[in-house]
Amino acid sequence: MHLALWGFGLVTVLVGLLGLLLFFGGCKHLLHGRFGAGGGRLLFGLVFLFFFAFVASAALGLRAYLRLTYEQPVATLSFAALGSQSYRATLTDVSGRITTAELRGDDWQLDARVLKWKGAATVLGLDPLYRLERLEGRYRNAGQESHDYHSVVELSADTGLDLWRLAQGHGRWLPWVDATYGSATYLPMADGAQYSVSLSPTGLLARPTNTAAEEALRRW
Q1: Residue closest to 106 by CA, chosen among 184, 198, 44, 187
Q2: Do the Cβ atoms of 81 and 64 come closer than 8 Å?
Q3: DSSP label at 96?
Q4: Distance between CA 96 and CA 74 in Å, rounded?
Q5: How far is CA 15 from the centre of its chain?
Q6: How many CB atoms lie within 10 A of CB 167?
Q7: How many of the other CB atoms lie within 10 Å of CB of 81?
Q8: Are 86 and 163 in contact (CB under 8 A)?
């Protein structure tokens, strides 16, 4: 972690402690009838505690994201046929977590969201962050895509404050957060096919890693 981030974290903790002191100090003054001094301390304490709670919740939400500094592998995928337009997909991410699901269709699609920074946040040395969102099956026929069973697997769950959604709905209050960038890639499913997926600041990129996947691409 960058030194600037450690410093920001320390300041945040100190603000939280100061907020607690002011809050309880204000309550003590109010109990003794000193409403002017107590009310002021109580108000400032609540403001500092709100700032601490906001930053702490945002930090908890960012735990679901991973750093993105250059093109780097994010997942591998393999497929086994279960029937007509039905495959068992196995996704392994960079943390070693394995997700297995049945996907229906002809192609697979992997979605990711990328959280970038602007302005003062870049001064702190923050790198772009990413998280894999979902894996789904796609039909090449538009009629099937519209009406047949659509299989989707969620790969991430929101924890804490979701800066992505907050920045999209209230961007003017978070001018240092860039949450307008998402990315997706899709390739054909085939029995025994294996793919590697990487992500760079420009988006997701999938590549075949065995003969079955290369053959599926030639027939695509």
Answers
A1: 187
A2: no
A3: -
A4: 10
A5: 27
A6: 19
A7: 14
A8: no
Collapsed DSSP state (helix, strand, coil) of residue 1 = coil
pTM, two decimal places:
0.64
Which tens digits make up the pLDDT trace of 99-114? 999 999 999 999 998 7
196 pairs with which residues across the strands? 76, 207
Beta pairing partners, 72: 199
Cα-based distances in Å from 4 to 10, 120, 122, 160:
10, 12, 11, 23
In Å, how far from its chain's centre is CA 62? 7
DSSP secondary structure code for residue 106 in this structure: S
Contact 156, 135 (CB under 8 A): no
Q: Please report the DSSP string for 143-207 in residue order.
A: HHHHHS---EEE-----S--HHHHHHHSGGG-TTEEEEEEEEEEEE--TT-EEEEEEETTEEEEE
> SS3 of 71, please?
coil
Q: What is the DSSP string of 17-36?
A: HHHHHHHHHHHHHHHTT-HH
Q: Nearest to residue 64, comparing CAs of 109, 10, 115, 108?
A: 115
Is residue 86 scored above 80 in pLDDT? yes
Q: What element of type H or E holds 217?
A: helix 211-219
Strand partners, 93: 75
pLDDT digits (tens, 9 = 90+) for 131-174: 898 999 999 999 998 889 999 999 987 665 566 566 665 556 56
Q: How far apart are CA 33 and CA 80, in angstroms?
A: 74
At 68, is the secondary structure helix, strand, or coil?
Answer: coil
Joined together, the tokens standing for residue 73 give 């592998």
